[in-house]
């Protein structure tokens, strides 16, 4: 049973650190499904953006505790993937920003 690539890759993350890593090391950041593994993430990125992925690194991030007046709540935990592309590869979605 294969998963839909769009359900694995939730959204692209655009930050100052991500922009620097994209320019220096050709690395892109994505929020991905928590149950996705590196192989599924690699295949999904290659299918969606038509690029060749060299390396995938993942990390589990804990949701922040947020307050609304006297009530405290918590954001959901999430998973982040740092994808390194080949030397001549790039994702056009990020280049527009």
Mean of residue pLDDT? Answer: 93
The CATH topology corresponds to Alpha-Beta Plaits
Report, as a whole number of angstroms, the end-to-end distance: 36 Å
Q: How many β-strands, per DSSP?
A: 6
Could you give the order of strands across the largest sheet?
Answer: 1-2-6-3
Helix content: 25-40%
Produce a short descriptive summary.
This protein is an alpha+beta fold and 97 residues long. It has one domain (5-86): RRM (RNA recognition motif) domain (Alpha-Beta Plaits), CATH 3.30.70.
List keywords for this structure.
6 strands; 97 residues; four-stranded antiparallel β-sheet; two-stranded antiparallel ribbon; single chain; Alpha-Beta Plaits; Large ribosomal subunit protein uL23; alpha+beta
Describe the structure in your own words:
InterPro entries: Nucleotide-bd_a/b_plait_sf (IPR012677), Ribosomal_uL23-like (IPR013025), Ribosomal_uL23/eL15/eS24_sf (IPR012678). Keywords: Ribonucleoprotein, Ribosomal protein, RNA-binding, rRNA-binding. One of its GO terms (biological process) is translation. Belongs to the universal ribosomal protein uL23 family. It holds the Pfam family Ribosomal_L23. The protein is an alpha+beta fold and 97 residues long. It has one domain (5-86): Alpha-Beta Plaits. It is 31% helix and 36% strand. It has 4 helices and 6 strands. It has a 4-stranded antiparallel beta sheet with strand order 1-2-6-3. A two-stranded antiparallel sheet has the order 4-5. The longest helix has 12 residues, at 38-49. The protein is globular. The model has no long low-confidence stretch (mean pLDDT 93).
